[in-house]
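Open question from group meeting: does this chain pack into something compact, or does most of it stay loose? Before anyone orders reagents, we agreed to write out a predicted structure and look at it together. Recording both the input and the output here so the notebook holds the full record.
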Amino acid sequence: MKPNDGLLLEQIIGSGDERAFDQLFTRYYPGLLNYSKVLLPYPTDEAEDIITEVFLKIWQQRATLIIHSSLASYLYISVKNRINDYYRKHRTNLHESLDSLVNNACPEYIPDQQLSYKELNMEMERLIDRLPVRTQLIFKMNRHDHITYDDIALILHLSVNSVKTHMYRALKFLKEEYRASNASR
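Structure tokens returned:
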């Protein structure tokens, strides 16, 4: 846990300290927001709602709350589970949201540029999807969610060196495969 996380949790669980809860919320909200926005379709306001639900559940269940892992892991896994619930409820997939992002976020591009951007994005997503599952997760957490290697290691219960190795392999694979696919054109 980050310094003071344990103390803040004790204050929340033990005496229902609202200031401690606010500090915890303020500390983790920005990272959780970035994490959830990457995993949710664009545009959506669900990210804020999901994070609020996670923290509301912590507050409501503070008397019986038991966290066996680090607080960061608990929060990120809780948000990921809520996002999975969102997808089950809405029966959508991540690739539909990428199409929406490309079509809605780049209206100033002329059609050729927009098509090139969309093709490049699709190619990169296809290559990312070919990465091993754990490497893919680590790559997306770092590059899409902007989570540091240290935090990824904490969340996934890995060493920082293991995270670095996964990132090195992912980047090497993506560069080699992208060059190879462009050379054959």
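Observations to bring back to the group:
Residues 113 and 119 are 10 Å apart (CA to CA).
Residues 93-99 have pLDDT under 50 and may be disordered.
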